[in-house]
Protein 1
Amino acid sequence: MSASSIAHAIVDGILTGGVYALMAAGLTLIFGVMDIINIAQGALVVLGAYMSYVLSAHLGIDLFLGLIITIPAFFVLGVAIEWSFMRRLREQDRVAMSILVTYAVAIIIEGILSVIFGVNVLQLHASYVDSTFHLLGFYLPYIYVFGFVLALVLLAALYYVLYRTHFGRGVRGSLQNRTAAELIGVNVDRVRMVSVGIGVAVTAAGGMVFGATNAFTPSSGYDLISRLLSIVILAGLGSIGGALVAALFMVTLEDVVAVVWSPVWATLVYYASLIVVLSFRPNGLFGTAAVRAQ
Amino acid sequence: MTTSEPASGNGNGGAAPGELLLKVEGVTAGYGGGDILKGVSFTVARNEIMCIVGPNGSGKSTLLSTISGILRPRTGEIAFLGDSLVGLAPRQILGKGVVLVPQAHSLFAEMTVRENVEMGAYTVRDPALVRRRRDEIEEMFPLVRERAADKAGSLSGGQQRLVELARSLMLDPSLIVLDEPSIGLDPPTRRTVFQMVRLMNEQGRTILLVEQNARAGLKLSTRGLVLENGRVRLTGTGREILEHPEIGSLYLGGAVSSTPAG
């Protein structure tokens, strides 16, 4: 272990953490407006990776350019999932039932991907995925930096929509007090549908970067969902800014522990830190569950 | 759908005081299997303050929910300025100029006081109009200006109630429906809230309120209605109801002449 390897672990953690935040943003947004824990988020990330794979490997479309197609397609997919699965859940037992229903969505996605692509391991390729640059004495693939920048741009766009637009006011109103939002004229059903669409749309970008930085199979979503859930729980369900902080913390901590101590302990230390945080702040670092409960 | 902006001005929409504003005719409504409202009929004229009183479970809040579109009546008709409200979504009813201020906790606790007030004009797409109305309301409610940047959740219960009242004016409504405006407030704060309700009425708004504190509510009102077991037991001026011997002893702890108002 050396100072430079720790520095490398931190840089790596920050770059990867941004992408995890992007993948978790949809999860936390959907929970915020719908009270739905979208277990299918991991499967959707993997679906995003496969869509990018099809566009790049079969149609020769650049991975980033392909997002012009996959992001709108995922928006439509999100709207369809909300319409066909989520809005049918009763308010009273929505959280519990959502876990079962979205788990079913995950199985459906995994099944379809397995039938079409088989279970072989894939990874996305492009010149910037396979080439590296020099930083702090280490060689990092360009995709890590590009992915991080993309994550920041999309998270900033999401933040802008939520905090600077008329629609965003409706989303935040529905999130904090849905009855009051309805009474002042917010079309809560529409806001929810569009929010899920946006949440799933940004997942397409997360999926592309995930597929470019990790090998994946149709069942890779299950490992991913536990990590994404732990990020949004640490952040506080419903907090997008918190998801960025929590993701950077989680991945950086894991990377540093892996270098300083052992990779075996990396995940364990992260989950232990999650338990410690939750014992002092049961709603997570930035959670507002008490407010939402009104 | 985006609701249209209600008539601007003082909420009168050019109509004369005393004109029939709201007509509720034979309304039956309830949750689940049973009916809570069993054929309720009454009218509200423009510029009135109409107070609905009655024991717990008599259907007061259900009636307001039905008028505001949260609950759909099973039978009967609700008309506002001659247009039926039955089957309309809350935001469509809002667009007609009927605003409901629910019982409690209707602010967005994580938003600032100013954002909360501006949210009252969510359906208005003209920023200049929103700003103008906000300025007028800040004149009327100095608290809104003084605490503009504070989170609404940090205000006391009484202050939150005032912000809720202020927000209800952002659409310049003709009819403001208040569900228990004084609930949980100490007497001085309750007086302030009632003063604001009276001021809103003097500025041309018609008020329909449900009030647990029947005596204070009826004293504030031009007309009252006693709801009992989902049916209208009595209507009359606030004074008539307060002085009605049977109603007084049943719901008000004695008629007004024998007990000072609270």
Note: The mean pLDDT of chain B is 85.
Protein 2
Amino acid sequence: MPKRNDIHKVLLIGSGPIQIGQAAEFDFSGSQACKSLREEGIEVVLVNSNPATIMTDPDTADKVYIEPLVPEIVAKIIEKERPDGIIAGIGGQTGLNITSELAEMGILEKYNVEVLGTSVKSIREAEDRDLFKKAMQRVGEPVPKSKAVNTLDEALQVMVELGLPLVVRPAYTLGGSGGGIAKTREDLLRICEMGLKRSRIGQVLLEESLGGWIELEYEVMRDSNNTCITICNMENMDPMGIHTGESIVVTPIQTLSDKEIQMLRSAAINIIRALEIEGGCNIQFAVKNGEYRVIEVNPRVSRSSALASKATGYPIARVTAKIAIGMTLDEIRNDVTKETPASFEPTVDYVVTKIPRWPFDKFVKADNTLTTAMKSTGEVMAIGRSYEESLMKAVRSLDIDKDFGYSGKYTVWTDEEIKNLLLNPTDERLFAIYQALKRGVSPEDISAMTGIEPYFLYRIQNIVSMEAEIRKDLNPETLRKAKRTGFTDGQIAAFVGKSREEITDMRLALGIIPTYKMVDTCAAEFEAKTPYYYSSYDTECELVPSDRMKVLILGSGPIRIGQGIEFDYCTVHAVMALREQGIEAHIINNNPETVSTDYDTSDKLFFEPVTLEDVMNIIEKELPYGLMLQFGGQTAINLAMPLEKEIARRGLKTKILGTTPDSIDLAEDRERFNALMNQLNIPQPNAGIAYSPVEAKVVAARIGYPVLVRPSYVLGGRAMEIVYDESGLEVYMREAVRVSREHPVLIDDFLQNAVEIDVDAVCDGTDVLIGAIMEHIEEAGIHSGDSACMIPPQTLPGVVLEVVRDYVRKIALGLKVVGIVNLQMAYKDGTVYVLEANPRSSRTIPFVSKAVGLPLAKIAANVMIDKSLREQGYLQEPKTPYVSVKEVLLPFDKLPGADVLLGPEMRSTGEVMGIDYKLGLAFFKAELSADNPLPLEGLVFISVKDDDKATVAVAARKLVDAGLKIIATDNTAEYLKKSGISVERVNKIFNGSPHVLDYIKRGEVKLIINTPTTKQSVKDGFQIRRNAVDYHVPYITTIQAAQAAADAIVMAKKDQITIKALDEYHKEVYYN
Amino acid sequence: MARVYFPGIEMYLGVLASCVADTMIGVLGLEDGTRVEGTGFGAPGVVSGELVFTTIMSGYEEALTDPSYNGQMLMFTYPLQGNYGVSGDDFQSDRIWPKAMVCREYWELPTHHRSVKTLNQFLKEEGKPGLCGVDTRMLTLKVRTEGVMRATIAVGARDEISGLDVVEMARSQPDISAQDLLGDVTCKNHYHIDGRGKRIAMIDLGIKRHILKSLSARGFDIDVFPAHSSISEIEAAKPDALFLSNGPGDPERADKAISAVKHFAGEVPIFGICLGHQVISLALGAQTFKLKFGHHGGNQPVKDLEKKIVYITSQNHNFAVVPGSVEDTDLKITQINANDGTVEGIMSDRLNILAVQYHPEAHPGPLCTLDPFFGSVERVMEGKNPNPGRR
């Protein structure tokens, strides 16, 4: 059926902020869908609260709304835009949920909006556990024995029927959050209680445990004509019991015969037909000895479909969007071959490995056990011609300073520790397996302990054997084999006690260089027009370098805390800038979820680890004019010096574009940077360096407590802490860092109650363009990545802003920045201090770009290829009559055990943006988007430290005046009462029931304001905050946010929020 | 120790090395002058044939036992072969047909619950050489651009093999159309498979077991005839229908079968799969031609022109029916390949003929067309509309 001619305008719902269980994959699929629909002449209206996305670029859709993804607001957008249809299956679970709710509210019917593609009925049938089970039984597909329950009593009954262990799966949640495996009655009650709370419909499923079965996935598509195809199948290396998002996944299936593979394929098609899904869907199976169970169906594009798209070259989201507007698979072209239709099944001639990237380096206290709930923030994908090669490339892509040959922590594990790591799956299990094999534990024994198929363990054993062989005798033949197995020059060098350079030179002298092969959807059967490349040590290289001018852009790898989708956004913008200038843009990256790794984003895509060796291999082959490192986050910046050295060593001509590695070093090296600031006469907080614990005490005493301490050698705020006294410093020096001559500790004066300021600017060496000055809502000391901030600044006086602007210009020019620079400053008692300068794109670039309507990353990329700011016509700082607020999304609900406090270490996974004409409304929207909705009525619980009491009283009064009720414990209640505010006093936890937790658990509290005290009642505070997260009560942990929230609530009760598309806002930007 | 404990590792490393002293080497020569060296596995030997590639990612057990590959050497584009061993359950005939197997890497440690032997053992027992450790994608690209090529593979000890001029040997073998491939693959004698339903006379042009299984499962009573059977021999079985199986090589060489179709057309329903489909087309006056490198894989899209649906099919053929040549016959094209428009299905309402170019019986490959095709066979046999979905 050709494209429907009654659909002219379509509403697409994005997925909101990056969070555990919902990462960049929906920006990738959403952007692809926008492009796909506009190609067919459809007008696209997009709504998403996440500014750090390509999909929310003004160029991606016809109308972009950066608004909270809640049905009430989407309804307003529908009322304004009057789309003909809505596509639910592109924006992840958020998109499905909102579409279902809009249907239930009658909004879709009222405005005559048709749900395109998969219907609401199909979504419900796939997602409601009971309906799903019935549907599967109707078409004869086996499901695990299970029962959906709505109460704890029902759960206990089911326990009697089915026995333990039981898997608990809440209905309608992201990434299985709130679920788990119950081995005891107590487990069951605890997990069910949480799951019932988390589920949007208050329902959980209890099912037989299939622990130890092989977990498999099929990506399937169906069109309105009932044509069904499977895009790819995937095998989880980790057995059932570990969420597929937490598993190491291999495509295609490795351990099953054609008979089983086709049995499951047929089942998958049977299922997609039964559910009448139109578009892409993901189906999960468990298999054991030829028997299978259908585990789950995701009736939408997903993380797995992004992986499947990148693993095969088949653009699932693009095709899903076209199916939604009535086209059939045979009418849609395969965009990679341009010759064949989309109605075929991709076939691969390589092996793909995905490994999740976990945040446990940031959450030392969080439980790192892998379960049926997701904890990872991102993932890497690697392609090789053998399993070993693909696995080793994936490990390398993780950018965790660890690999199989790693000689640090893992070699000192005791046998007992290894055994525990094998028995209890964590992020370290893969490395434990390697160590176990190295110590002679048999693959069979490891299989018994881990439930992993012996096949994979034999494969890892191959890598172990190869390591032994290299250590024994490194001759040309072993080197060749080692490279084919996937070892890097650096690893090999470490094994044989040589330098990395020596091994590289030996390899190059022997002509052992990688070949580049294509991902072409068809295993070379047809010619590919837009393929992408991966390296492998084979004989024929298919890469044909052009003689055009070209630039290689380094991507930022997997999404992790501190290095998120913002960098992918910048990478894509750099590509756009280059292509507009007629320069060939190449990307190297390994994150399958992103737009940067889409087949048609760049002129050439290298799906590779971002390491010195892998980048150098491409440089040797393509001889690009230059490299861009500013957009790939710290991963790329860290390679600046090594790349510059290696390029010079090999006598190559490729340039590092923009800010020089020396200038980068100048910004990153504390002592050099301090010297520059002194020279420029710019104040910095008092600081010192300590090389021993004793020295640390002396330095801290000189500066005066509280101080901010951090090791000099870790980046991104890891292990950074504020210590308030000497005993705190002792604990930190003992537990958090190992200080030494090579690894000193940096100690800074902590500017208490200072206002933190962030600035993003572009400099071309002569002029400086200030994108925006952002004022943080939280005080300095909260990591800038976790802080809410606003454009324009709301409390800073004009003279201070002038000082800020002056410093920005001086520093940018002083550092000789060519490209982007991000500055962090603090304002206290009349002085502006510079905290740090980052000569690279920051995580606020997309937010600033969306707020002021300037494509900063593009402007910077142009500067780097010698188009001055003057030439580009960007010299003046834009101003806005509206307020943009950035708020962050914290992952605490996904990480049991972690404290929810903010500090100098970054914790957030993603961000949202709220825009309106008043700060209160913009903040209200931002909080709503950050899944921390501020209540307009009900109970507010307040408990703050003494310093904050006066301020909180002002906020409390506003809340009471706005009709909310306050409850508080001892001191706070006392204080508020004295201030004449009506407050109900409740027990602290140790006073016994009914205490504050009872109110929280009963769902009576609608907002919690709890600022942490430095010492006392820490435990109470922790329990309150943890319960707030677990019971999904909005919470605020800083006094500044409390003030903003009170204002926001007052304003939201009084004023109408504004519904306006981004381009309408941008028209109001002015310069003066 | 490692050797005893992990026999596969030695093998694997051997594969990577391609010149470990105690393993066999393998060399491949193509008629275009290409010569590559890799590691040998399976049985030592020197063989010549046509090099074809299949893009199916699983199903080597079924593919290797498919008689349609007689005279050819089968190269798998998916790099890892042997992962799940060999079960014996999934054989499509009782032996291996391709003259040799080529892959990038072969695996010696299967742990699949049905596996009874390794792929290496299987090839060894069947006396078939295997070549691995070569850049199969490079070879695939050659076949794609230059078409199917004659090839020679030699596997054995280095000193015995390295001196052979495999390129010259490849060039000196006869073209596949000149070879009698049918004689090898067809059954020697007529045999009977009991069923309670209607009687089908099957002409065995190199039949895959799953065609017979699929018909038996529907209750048909089947007489299987050798390819060279005379019309009177077939008539003696009083068939309710004639069925022509898949098989290797050029359909023009199946002259007896062509005559049989001419004779039975209009008298009883006639069905065909793959080579059988080409034979029926020839018998009714259409023509066939040789594709550049054929269709071999499990992902070929076939579009049903009436239902508009696309099926993903398993295919294995080098010859195809010339689309324009069907026009003046009693046949009409019902299905085409969505990739290249080649003929995938024909039928004749008047003559009760139904045939497909792909393998609806699958094994290996997707099962999408199993029920649609054999269901239609059943309906035609019952005198019903073969395609109830159509108007």
Note: The CA atoms of residues 175 and 710 of chain A lie 33 Å apart.
Protein 3
Amino acid sequence: MKKLETQVAVIAAGPSGLAAAVQAAEDGAKVMVFEKSNVVGGAANMGMGPLGIGTRQQQQQMVDISVEKAFKMFMDYTHWRVDANLVRKYFGNSADTIAWLEDMGLEFAGAYKYFPKSEATWHIVAVNGGIGRNGGAIMNKTLMERAKELGVEFFMETPAKKILKDKDGKICGLIAVDKSGEEIEVSAKAVVVACGGAGDNPEMIKQRTGYTWREDLFSFAIPGLKGDGINMAAEVGAATTEMSMEMMYILPNSDFGPDCIPATFMQPNLLVNNFGKRFMNEEEMQNTTFTGNAIAIQRGKIAYSIIDTSILKGYKRNGLDVTNFVHHPENIDDFEQVVEDSIANNNPDVVKADTLEELAEKLGINVDTFVETVEEYNEMCESYDEVFFKDRRFMKPIKKGPFYAGTFRPGAYGTLGGIKINENAEVLDNEWKPVPGLYAAGTDTCTIYGDSYMFLLPGNTMGYCLNTGRFAGEGAAAYAQD
Amino acid sequence: MSQIKMIIDGKEIIADENQTILEAALANKIYIPHLCYHENLNHSGGCRLCVVEQEGVGGVVTSCSTKVAEGMVIHTKSDLAEKVRKLSVDLMFKTHPSECTGCPKYGKCQLMSISQYIGDTGRSLRDLKIRIGADESNPLIHHEMYRCILCGRCVRACDEMRGVGALKYDKVNGRLQVVVNGSSLSEAGCRFCGACVEVCPTGSIRDKVGVIKEGVSREKALVPCIDGCPANINIPKYVRYLREGKYTEAAATVREKAPFPEALGYICTHDCELACRRNHINGAVSIRNIKRYAASQDDGSWKVHSFQKPETGKKAAVVGAGPAGLTAAYYLSKLGHEVVVFEKLPQAGGQMAYGIPSYRLPREVIQKEVAEVTSGRVKVEYNSPVTSAKDLLEQGYDAVFVAIGTHEGLRLPLEGNDLKGVYINTEFLREINLGNHPEIGERVVVLGGGNVAVDCAGSALRLGAKEVHMVCLEAEDSMRASEEEVAWTKEEGIQIHNSKNFERIVGEDGKVAGFEMTSVKSFYFDETGKAVLDKVPDSLETIDADTIIFAIGQRPAVTEEFGLKLGRGNRIEVDEKTTQTSIPGIFAAGDAVTGTASVIKAIAAARKAVSQMDIYLGGDGYIEEQLASVQEPEGRIGNWKHYAELERTEPNVASAESRCHNFDLMDFGFDADKAHCEADRCLQCDLRARIAPQRFWNDYIPTESKEVQNG
């Protein structure tokens, strides 16, 4: 068996692991990183940037947000059911982390909101000097290059399989498997677990959250996120936490297709459940977490977004009512063509019908109730939404065929939580005592949202990963060099 | 070949004059983004990612197609080069989805990695997505045109590497696409080699879910038959040798990992076939019969390559002359140790000779191969039972290898289990093979549904039984016997009663008179191994019978007196790594350790144990040898119309009427024509493993790997 020796071993090279590696190396430790994939960055390569509070960017843009305000908002939102010390430390350090990344040469386009009601905490990584796609990937590249500069060694396609503990109960290394299938024994004083959750492990999702993947949950199964970190940590005595899904809502088969479809159906028009009844103020549809929650408690965990030809024409002429960073097509000129293609490809997400009755039949919902709902809705469009108090601007009647429906289901970015840590990213055992030498960061440990992702402070998940990664790196380096 | 000096990004490097700028840069760990370039393909210069500025030349040049020259000065990161590169990536995202969500290639995608490196905007150009669904018509390969960036690597791989040309570019509805060159892949002459999948940089062409094993090394995943074989025999290599008519080379390839190639050709449990990728198309390649034919043609010329180490002066004892024991004896002798094999029975072969009936495996084949294996400094003492392994150490043997198999059949605690006319599988088969034909009645019931039960039933029929039944707890689709054997059994008129619980053996005057059973809806085994049954009420049935044969399992015929620690099922306990038993110097492997398994598993386990024994005896434990020549497979396998439809070749088998009254060989295997036909069906998965693996920018950042040591 091949043998390696280091002070700090980091499992996985997403933002949490990369931040831990850089921080530990800056603090003088010898660091090795073991990554399953060929590409660094993990799920965060799809993201755009982390949360920061009290940053230079916010001062310059005159954004009114402070650690105190964010903390209060956050604790109100979570009803104090989450680790306040960890939240406080994370928020308090978040501005320094943005500056830390800038010192490495990373540029930010600025601090942004995700949707109008949210705060401008989202620090979007500049892509070619502006806002582009996948800034997270560039951030991860910068972190890796910085880590290499500091002498961190990377082992790609070399997943860790087991964390090792000595007879005194102290962590003493790990076993990894290289690309030829050969086991490597790594001796290390401290190990940082940062594996990004179990989004690609339907069995674990079922066991820990109750959802059945692709039956009532259409979450992203980001390849490789098998819950390895959670399992390995539990094997060496880590206490487990509740796990939840980082909820949103989705057109399961159309989300990665042409943007005109998801973007149009996410507009705040008529949203009905399986009974053909409204169940929420559609204005909230921009908050993907809230909407995902609301859909998840409807019968069959399903909802239909309805538009008519007049609404479609209006969007084509004047643009959509609301857009966000993910869904903002230049125009939706090809909407009808994409609908035709989708129907031809048996994509169940999209339904088209000439009459309301036919639409209801195709959707398999009660025709009378649905027609009644539409009639009532159309009446309210002339006065006001006396049921859910939706803003008048978004009250557009559903009258002119053909009609279109988009079928939304609960989706999720991945899992949250699994390993119990304290505010220093030390992994705790069942008596809440730190397991000596074991640290964990990022999604594997993220239970700070309570039951629902805190969308009002965007950039939260990546921010949490980077900051807890730094806490873990700092702690591991100090422990390993003690 | 001469060397030149050049400068890339201010760094002087030495390159081979035949290299391109890109090759020279990569060899010196200077990364230049590239996508359409692939080590095993001709340069096309199409993606324009690898552009660089060359001093003295205007504009940019594509580094993948420009040869190096003495004194050349290259700037890979000039503004112009970066600008062209960014534009190229943006162009790729015109058609490729801009979000990675939902893509199974995520984390292993070269386009993702390149976009991470270059930092594309992806939004400055108008989207022009191709809106067509996934093509799932192929059993192995999944094609999603909407993820394609038209780098052309798949088309070039199919054409240049393989000479197949099953893929081409074509305009469909005014848009250039990669399409099949025909109405289907089969029509297009696809050989299902997987080269297109291997070179695809995005998630556009992928292996179908379930086709490639996850969590194992690339080689194991890509060549599943070798991974499936317990002894890791290089199957594609010997199948190819057979196709080329090099039968001895083929047999030698088997022999590199297993010393009984021909016997295996008759009776191997062929885990390789279960893993064969062609299962997903139209049935596995009949690998076992190919091996059998090759082995039957072996002229022994491999012997000159067989290693023989000088005498070590060490003496080893082997207990049991079955597949495990003989394999161990063979290699121990080759390693220079003196070997004595103690065999309880009058003949060698273990279960091959005393369990498996002669109509499945001719005794001459066993004798021939045993003679081969024991031709060195191996002495076999027949009719020599060993009562204590420990005593052998005291008698002066330096190490002992125990491979006593599982020769004690189990008798269930069932009413009537000791009546006259009740037999036990192992004893019954052993008696036949010793030539003492046991007395058999007219109506025989075999209890059990595994391969041994099938052998008992077939033997009973051949001994003259008029009616033979098999009764087992398992349902038809989950019987432990192989499908092929169950089918043959049925052909011979043996009646199989599935999903039955054994109630009792009915006796009359101390003799078997019948068998009672009830139907079972479902069952499972609890933690203690006890069957928990859900019986069908009032389903009691009786079969009139005069003979009952228990074939419900077997265990090692060993007691504590033997001196070794025994575990569950009376099996010998060994350390997994060292294969050593509870007594240092005594090693064990095969059925006696694992419970009844297979000949190939016993051979594989014995090889592992021999390595450990040799180390124990002061050797290096190295037993690998190269008996067949090195093979340089031809990658250009060529186009073959309707290759996918080539049906699995079935062996020549004696008719049920002609075979069920005698112990003559029933399965004649392949003749040369059939062997060649079948070998043609091999997809040659090993070719794909020879394609250079995909690399990423982070692979080129220099690392100084320190303190790596071999322990």
Note: Chain A is about 35% helix and 20% strand.
